[in-house]
Design brief:
The chain is mainly beta. The chain has one domain. Helices cover about 10% and strands about 45% of the residues. The chain is built from one helix and nine strands.
């Protein structure tokens, strides 16, 4: 997992806006709380997307190989092809999670993306 990407989620708590989906690749604009574009996240070889777009801020992101999925995600393992990973994203404001349409996983509302790899490009702007 790209530590710059993890740091961006920790510092910026970005909203994800799906900017493009093309040939199984998804590009998300990362917007800070003021709506400034602070980065791009490109997920290559997407198998599944379960995220909200433009409505919630995410405070963290982690990446898991199929063999290392947390117990709460064991149900996903069968559907993940060899060489793919799961990106797990947590809401920045868990107090507002009752209003979210994200699934409850391990007692928390989480987003996930199943893909082959992820790229991150930081952009100037924001805080």
């Amino acid at each position: 997992m790209n530590t710059q990407l993890q740091d961006a989620f920790h510092r910026q708590e970005p909203e994800l806006v799906l900017a493009e989906y093309n040939s199984n690749d998804a590009t998300f604009n990362l917007l800070d709380c003021d709506g400034y574009l602070v980065g791009l996240m490109r997920c290559l070889g997407v198998r599944a997307l379960c995220v909200t777009t433009g409505s919630e801020s995410y405070g963290w992101i982690d990446c898991y190989a199929r063999a290392n999925l947390p117990d709460d995600l064991a149900w996903l393992a069968e559907g993940i092809p060899e060489g793919f990973s799961v990106l797990l994203l947590g809401l920045a404001d868990e107090d507002s999670s009752s209003e979210s349409v994200l699934p409850v996983i391990g007692g928390r509302r989480l987003a996930y993306i199943v893909c082959q790899s992820v790229e991150y490009q930081a952009l100037s702007g924001g805080r």
